[in-house]
């Protein structure tokens, strides 16, 4: 069985699976049970400045999006940072870290954008023995209205400034947690790096309204007839998170900056995908809020099995391996030609490929009287929609044409050489350059 | 109080609570969450095979999608638009041979979407909520006689009433509903559903019901033709084939349909007598219904004796398994040769059969089974041809139920073509109604 021991910023943990800063990591009771269940580390739920703690609403904090069979696909929340006293949290962190020296404990922090506030809290956090801190620049609701959370994360200058303060008053790793509620994630990531951050973690939650109660005409979750946007997370946000991770991983300015991946990680495969895109480890929240701490057993066994199958002996073997294959559209090979192929033995004749292609795409699937569905190569552009809507995995596949063959759609020979948009005759920029 | 061991034919073989449990719904209604999970399994196929397999062409993917989006009432409307007896069909259709057999998930994983139970879910909700979901068109002043208030007649009358015609629906029996009321196993139509459905259907208005009027007795086709603008015959198959076996006249040898009819009309099943040893002759749904219900009433030994092999049995594999699971013995390749007993039946003698491709033949080997009761379930027949041309032993029809006589339509079990199924009868009644409407309004 593969060794999952992971070192991230010099912090060792028995596996790359950390719990994200969120309700599951709000207190000693939870964190001890998470460690007993097998989690490699936790990012303790965000601490605020000394003084009266924040208060939460006393009504629903979560809204949900469901798939078939009420499978939870997306969750949003309007919960704030810890609403427990700072000292209580610090004492608990100290006790837990002492009892679990082999596990990573990172403390998430969010205090006002004033140097004094950071200067005040950082020594207290350092005294707990925790392995590092994560700066919560992502929380999109409530705290942002008070000039914290995503209000900081949306201004690169603030990110850099606060990161610099942290590096000045704290000597262990500083992770900057980024908000996705921006247009270009590379800018805040660059700012974090420029401020001296040891790593970034992303994504925090996405502004969202999960549903509207059509009887009372109010967004959900509803508090006494009103609702507000919450932070969206869970499997639904994974594609957005992975795209942002990949942008940071491949941008020349931030390439190599350690990343802790967050956003809908539910299975070992999700974790492996984030790591392949450059994450040194992953943080999990919604999956445990849905299924409990026990899922870490599947994460561990699944990742180990896959690593064994692939011959990886350490998680560092495959971190970032997919990054070189993420490119810009303009560099995709336009001479690559594929065609859909329907395996008639696997086909259950539901006709979804036909409906999708006929109604919305290229009219490239034929249907016979006996419900045999076949691809019309003369029309097929290999868009993959049929594959995506087919309920049977691998029943429809995309088969690459061999160079030298004639594409029945275009009547042109499939070229063997790579050719992209930058050199394509239809590209006006290409002509301009001549 | 008797017991399953009590010799002869006896009532109250089982305690009343047990009988009540035995005759509860065969397929429990889906709870809302179950319905939602079941509906989520539908792939919303293009030109869906289930819909093609349905004799009434219900838009199954659409109604299931309507259930999954929280509008079972709209789903029910989709069902009733095609099949006004969608509630009963949801209970009695051999879905395993129709829509669910065609379901692509049956092909994919051997577990079709539960179309029948979903249909029941939707129709139950609408029927509980709404007195009747359709309105009549403006009166046409035309009148139609519908003879037979079974599935075909009800569907025909309803569709004609919707079009604005005035209908008189006759039935030979005291209650309307036909086989829904008198012929289907009790555990498929619990809580008097057949009668409730008829009442609900008649909520359309414009349909006058006259019970106790039989074609060939109180009614003549010529008179009906004279009195009405059109006539629809949905009289079913009221006769029963005889065994033509020595001793058939002994006490205890009865028609399965009469046993089922008595059972369906019984208000206290513990008062309904049944034999200790029951033998049912036949291989269709009626045979299974009679055998299973005998067992559920407390008969000790129940055997279905069928002259051909299992594959030839017209009762579906699902029905065969149901019978077996209730403890009914299925005996194949045997044909009755004699009924023994002194006044009342004591034994039935059967001869083994084989078919080498040249027709079914007795092998000369015999088997005798103890029998206090023998139910004959070897097919039903037309009781009157009313002077119409026949095709085989049924009223010949062409197109949408047109008989050999202009102005007279027929559908359901009495008419040629189609399977003898409730759902087929509904389709035929409905389609004949639309043809009658077109004819009466001069557009044909």
UniProtKB/TrEMBL annotation, chain A:
Sequence ranges assigned to domain 4Fe-4S ferredoxin-type in this UniProt record: 338-370, 371-401
GO function terms (MF aspect): dihydropyrimidine dehydrogenase (NAD+) activity; iron-sulfur cluster binding; metal ion binding
CDD domains per the UniProt record, alphabetical: DHPD_FMN (cd02940)
Keywords carried by this UniProt record: Iron, Iron-sulfur, Metal-binding, Oxidoreductase
Enzyme class, first EC level, given as a word: oxidoreductase
Catalytic activities: 5,6-dihydrothymine + NAD(+) = thymine + NADH + H(+); 5,6-dihydrouracil + NAD(+) = uracil + NADH + H(+)
InterPro entries hit by this protein: 4Fe4S_Fe-S-bd (IPR017896), 4Fe4S_Fe_S_CS (IPR017900), Aldolase_TIM (IPR013785), Dihydroorotate_DH_cat (IPR005720)
This protein's GO CC annotations: cytoplasm
Entry EC no(s): 1.3.1.1
Xref: SUPFAM superfamilies: 4Fe-4S ferredoxins (SSF54862), FMN-linked oxidoreductases (SSF51395)
Domain of life: Bacteria
Job description of the protein: Involved in pyrimidine base degradation. Catalyzes physiologically the reduction of uracil to 5,6-dihydrouracil (DHU) by using NADH as a specific cosubstrate. It also catalyzes the reverse reaction and the reduction of thymine to 5,6-dihydrothymine (DHT).
Record note on quaternary structure: Heterotetramer of 2 PreA and 2 PreT subunits.
Similarity-based family: Belongs to the dihydropyrimidine dehydrogenase family.
Entry protein name: dihydrouracil dehydrogenase (NAD(+))
Origin species: Yoonia tamlensis
From TrEMBL, chain B:
Pfam families, sorted: Fer4_20, Pyr_redox_2
Residue ranges constituting the FAD/NAD(P)-binding domain according to the UniProt record: 143-429
Coiled coil (residue ranges): none
A single MF term (Gene Ontology): oxidoreductase activity
Classification via SUPFAM superfamilies: alpha-helical ferredoxin, Nucleotide-binding domain
Every Dihydroprymidine dehydrogenase domain range: 21-129
UniProt name for this protein: Glutamate synthase (NADPH/NADH) small chain
Species: Yoonia tamlensis
């Amino acid at each position: 069985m593969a060794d999952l021991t992971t070192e991230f910023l010099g912090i060792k943990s028995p596996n790359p699976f950390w719990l994200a800063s969120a309700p599951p990591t709000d207190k000693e009771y939870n964190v001890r049970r998470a460690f007993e269940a097998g989690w490699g580390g936790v990012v303790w739920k965000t601490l605020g400045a000394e003084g009266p703690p924040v208060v939460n609403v006393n009504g629903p904090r979560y809204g949900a999006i469901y798939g078939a069979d009420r499978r939870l696909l997306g969750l949003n929340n309007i919960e704030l940072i810890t609403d427990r006293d700072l000292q209580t949290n610090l004492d608990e962190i100290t006790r837990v870290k002492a009892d679990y020296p082999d596990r990573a404990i990172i403390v998430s922090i969010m205090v006002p954008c004033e140097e004094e506030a950071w200067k005040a809290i950082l020594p207290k956090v350092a005294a707990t023995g925790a392995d590092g801190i994560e700066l919560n620049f992502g929380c999109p609701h409530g705290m942002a209205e008070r000039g914290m959370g995503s209000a900081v994360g949306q201004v690169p200058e603030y990110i850099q400034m606060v990161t610099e303060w942290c590096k000045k008053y704290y000597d262990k790793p500083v992770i900057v947690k980024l908000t996705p509620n921006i247009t270009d994630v590379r800018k805040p990531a660059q700012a974090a790096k420029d401020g001296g951050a040891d790593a970034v973690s992303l994504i925090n939650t996405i502004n969202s309204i999960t549903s509207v109660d059509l009887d009372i005409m109010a967004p959900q979750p509803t508090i006494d007839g009103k609702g507000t946007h919450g932070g969206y997370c869970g499997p639904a946000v994974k594609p957005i998170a992975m795209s942002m991770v990949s942008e940071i991983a491949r941008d020349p300015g931030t390439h190599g900056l350690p990343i802790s991946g967050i956003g809908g990680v539910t299975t070992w495969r999700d974790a492996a995908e984030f790591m392949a895109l450059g994450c040194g480890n992953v943080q999990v929240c919604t999956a445990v809020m849905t299924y409990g701490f026990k899922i870490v057993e599947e994460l561990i066994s699944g990742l180990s099995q896959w690593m064994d199958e692939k011959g990886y002996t350490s998680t560092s073997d495959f971190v970032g391996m997919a990054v070189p294959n993420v490119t810009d559209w303009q560099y995709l090979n336009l001479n690559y030609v594929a065609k859909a192929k329907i395996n008639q033995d696997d086909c259950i004749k539901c006709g979804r490929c036909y409906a999708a292609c006929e109604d919305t795409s290229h009219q490239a699937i034929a249907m016979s009287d006996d419900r045999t569905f076949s691809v019309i190569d003369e029309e097929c552009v290999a868009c993959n929609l049929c594959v995506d809507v087919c309920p049977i995995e691998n029943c429809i596949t995309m088969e690459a044409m061999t160079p030298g063959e004639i594409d029945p759609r275009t009547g042109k020979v499939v070229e063997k050489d790579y050719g992209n948009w930058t050199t394509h005759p239809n590209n006006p920029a290409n002509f301009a350059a001549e | 109080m008797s017991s399953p061991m009590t010799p002869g034919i006896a009532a109250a073989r089982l305690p009343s609570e047990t009988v009540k449990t035995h005759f509860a719904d065969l397929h429990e209604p889906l709870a809302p969450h179950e319905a939602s999970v079941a509906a989520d399994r539908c792939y919303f196929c293009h030109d869906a095979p289930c819909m093609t397999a349905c004799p009434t062409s219900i838009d199954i993917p659409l109604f299931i999608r309507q259930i999954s989006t929280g509008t079972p009432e709209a789903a029910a409307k989709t069902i009733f638009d095609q099949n006004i007896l969608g509630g009963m069909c949801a209970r009695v259709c051999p879905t395993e041979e129709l829509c669910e057999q065609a379901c692509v998930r049956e092909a994919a994983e051997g577990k079709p979407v539960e179309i029948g139970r979903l249909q029941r879910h939707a129709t139950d909700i609408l029927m509980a909520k709404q007195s009747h979901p359709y309105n009549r068109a403006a009166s046409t002043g035309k009148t139609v006689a519908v003879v037979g208030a079974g599935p075909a007649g009800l569907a025909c009358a309803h569709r004609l009433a919707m079009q604005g015609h005035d209908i008189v629906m006759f039935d030979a029996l005291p209650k309307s509903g036909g086989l829904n009321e008198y012929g289907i196993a009790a555990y498929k139509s619990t809580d008097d559903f057949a009668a409730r459905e008829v009442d609900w259907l008649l909520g359309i208005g414009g349909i006058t019901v006259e019970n106790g009027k039989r074609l060939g007795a109180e009614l003549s086709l010529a008179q009906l033709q004279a009195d009405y603008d059109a006539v629809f015959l949905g009289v079913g198959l009221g006769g029963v084939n005889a065994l033509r076996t020595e001793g058939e006249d002994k006490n205890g040898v009865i028609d399965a349909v009469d046993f089922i009819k008595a059972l369906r009309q019984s208000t206290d099943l513990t008062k309904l007598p049944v034999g200790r040893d029951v033998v049912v002759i036949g291989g269709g749904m009626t045979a299974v219904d009679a055998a299973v219900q005998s067992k559920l009433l407390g008969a000790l030994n129940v055997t279905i004796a069928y002259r051909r092999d299992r594959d030839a049995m017209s009762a579906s594999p699902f029905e065969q398994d149901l019978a077996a699971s209730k403890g009914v013995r299925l005996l194949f390749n045997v044909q009755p040769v004699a009924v023994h007993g002194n006044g009342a039946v004591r034994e039935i003698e059967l001869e083994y059969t084989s078919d080498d491709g040249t027709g079914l033949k007795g092998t000369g080997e015999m088997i005798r089974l103890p029998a206090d009761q023998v139910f004959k379930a070897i097919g039903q027949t037309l009781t009157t041809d009313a002077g119409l041309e026949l095709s085989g032993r049924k009223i010949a029809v062409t197109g949408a139920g047109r008989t050999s006589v202009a102005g007279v339509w027929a559908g359901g079990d009495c008419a040629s073509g189609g399977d003898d199924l409730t759902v087929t009868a509904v389709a035929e009644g409905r389609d004949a109604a639309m043809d009658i409407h077109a004819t009466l309004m001069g557009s044909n």
